[in-house]
Amino acid sequence: MFDRNRLAAVMVTTSVLALATAAQAQAAPAADQDAVVTEIVVTAQKREERLQEVPLSITVAGSAQLERQQVNQVSDLARIAPSLEVQQAPGQSVGGGGQIRGIGTQSFQAGAVGSVGIVVDQVSQGNVNISDLFDIARVEVLKGPQGTLFGLTTSAGVINIATNAPVFGQFSGRVRTELSKDGTAGSKYGQQVVQGLLNIPLAETAALRVSASVNQRQGVNRNTLTGDLDDHAAYALRGRLLWEPSDKLTVNLIGDYSKTDDDGTDFFVLYKANTALTAELAQCGIVASQANRDYCSTSKLINRNKSYGGSMQLDYDLGAASVTSITALRKLDAGPAFLDIFRLDVNPLKVRQGPTTGDGELFTQEIRIASPSSAVFEYTAGLFYSSQTNHTDPAAMAINVTPFPGVIIPISNLLGYDLDTKDRSTAAFGQATYHVGDKLRLIAGARYTHETMKVAYYSLDSGTGGGRKTTIDNWSWKLGPQYQFDKDTMAYATVSRGYKGPQVAVGDPTIPTNQPTLIRPEIPTNYEAGLKGALLDGRLLADVSAFYMNLKDYQGQLCTPNQSGGLTCAPQNIGKVISKGVEVNLFGQPVHGLSLNTGVIYNPVTYPKGFTAQDGSDLGGEQMANAPKWKFTLSGEYRHAVAGTIEGFVAADTVYKSAVRYAASTDENVTFDAHWTVGGRIGLRDPDRGWTAAIFVRNLTDSHEPTVRYANFPDGSIGSYGQILTPQSFRLVGLSLDARF
Question: Other CB atoms closer than 10 Å to residue 503's CB: what's the count?
Fold first, then answer.
């Protein structure tokens, strides 16, 4: 394990040296000056287009905004867009766990896929997700079904991420750090982030960009038996080669590797306890509350993961059209992981699992042809193939009762089961825009998908195995008009049909007669109208949209703690879910020195009539779990010259959410009240961004927003509640240093 004090000293020394070097070197151009935002280019339709000409609601965050808000992980992206939530409970890794407009997927099933797809440099991440974000050029949050162009795991939307490309003819580099320590300046946990990059010219038309990230965190959970905070460490590396062998051919080769080492796992803690459980908690110094992050366990809790992949993108200009081929392979090595479900040695019931290991692989191949953007008939058409496999090794689970010290009564000792899932799909797709005249355009697109999913398992406990296979043929499509009033003002109205593939859910493999069940595909139909316009001579862009989405067979999950230990989670189809609302976003530099990105959404997302909650009550017509009805986001920075060539700046970001329900229950204790989360930073820098030094704070008010809540936790105890807290749930104060050369 790395020595934290030594690592912090190394990072500070590295940053100071880099700052000194940068002060004498040629600085890179500023990334966030007073620009005309109507020239912002996005790739939301798999071609480069001006943001205000894309008939789709998009929230865009550039590199400057991502860095000033300390967006270092996928889970941080929830702070940049009002329509986006990212819930990442341990064991639930499906498309990043994201939700757009209240629609997303949390599931413990290995064969599940997400409703929100993560795409990095035009490569779908599937269930082999990236975690850390570094050296990012832009993040686009695309709202509503994106199945026509993006495929399977996009029934609610897409998080489209673009990394920075190499620059020809320029040797340059950068080091940036964020340093904080538990207990210092009000920080409730410690974190040390260091990121660096080198841009290396190889030839006149070839360059290599290498970037890396180290992210170490102490907390947020703490073991009262040792006084130690959980240790988390993530390491990531990416290399990108850009080569233009001719004026027609462009080659992009990208490879990435990431590793996480967790000693201690931020998991369930008690925030409410009945009388009996309160007495047990007192024995190890724990007081149940919304702010509680403590547990007491002698179990060795670790989690190890590796993911890596590579892609090759070839772009060839035919003159009348361009051809793109993208070949990608991603792999995941999961585990070993050891988990103590309750992490309470003082509780008689013990549930421990592990070692848990497994692996995953995703291969994708896409080839497409696209017309020039200036054509009267613009089109993009192509073929897509994906093959995703996941394997989970048997993981033992021991459930014991210890009524008295030294007395252990085994309830069950399960050996676990082998599980293999295979998901293969082929698709043909196309989308076209016909310019009827100078102002009116008609949009039409469709995608045909043929998908086969198979699940096979063998139970070591029952000595039996089983499996199931399902094949789906599906059409996704999009239609609508678009009207361009002038260069910077546009209105659109679209209707689109999306698709998310089936799940094959494994029940209890210890029971020979318990065969896998089929969870039907999720089919959304979305109606959307929007208006985009430029204000203040192109310095501010407004994006207003209204939407109504009808989801057939929404893929949900119902989890309930049980008295034999752990959670019983049953995936299910929810017959009809409605997501509707209005969203407004503003982006740009309204006045000199002020950068602003803000938005608000009103989004009722309701359970269908007659839907039964996990406590047996009727949730029909109620707001769905993990979906705030109101959400407001704001990120802004004001800069001003303070002395000579030094610029001062102050930045603020805030998120408001209305009350959020965290489980399918009418119990008010699984709901977190309406709240604000506020952060910001203040500092000095070279106006050309050669160096920057700042003090930052995240979650200034120390609002303890959870990511999961369950009733009757841990052992079916009435009146007791468990929750999972994340780094977003506590205050963090620290020092940020940045240098370019």
Answer: 31
**Residue 399 DSSP symbol:** E
Number of H helices, E strands in the chain: 4, 43
DSSP for 580-649 reads: EEEEEEEEEEEETTEEEEEEEEE--EEPPTTPBPTTS-B-TTSBPTT--SEEEEEEEEEEEEEETTEEEE
Dist. CA 240–CA 255, nearest whole Å:
7
Q: Tell me which residue of 55, 52, 26 sits closest to 37, measured CA to CA.
A: 52
Q: What is the pLDDT of residue 532?
A: 96
Whether the CB-CB separation of 176 and 738 falls below 8 Å is answered with yes
> Which residues lie closer than 8 Å to 6 by C-beta, 6 or more apart?
none
Q: What is the pLDDT of residue 111?
A: 63
**Helix then strand then coil, % of the chain, to nearest 5:** 10, 60, 35
The type of residue at 572 is Q
Q: Is cis: bond before 714, omega within 30 of 0?
A: yes
Q: What is the pLDDT of residue 635?
A: 96
Q: What single letter denotes the amino acid at residue 114?
A: G
**Phi, psi dihedral angles at 401 (to 5 degrees):** -120, 130
Question: Is beta strand 249-263 parallel, antiparallel or unpaired with respect to 706-711?
Answer: unpaired
**pLDDT tens per residue across span 603-625:** 999 999 988 887 778 889 999 98
Look at residue 407 and tell me whether its pLDDT is greater than 70.
yes
Chain segment 510-556, per-residue pLDDT in tens: 666 667 788 889 999 999 999 999 998 888 999 999 999 999 999 88
- In sign, the C-alpha dihedral spanning 706, 708, 713, 715 is negative
Residue 251 identity: V
Residue-wise pLDDT tens digits, 81-95: 999 998 765 544 444
Asked whether the CA dihedral 560, 561, 565, 567 is positive or negative, the reply is positive
Strand partners, 174: 197, 740
- 687: tokens are 């106006």
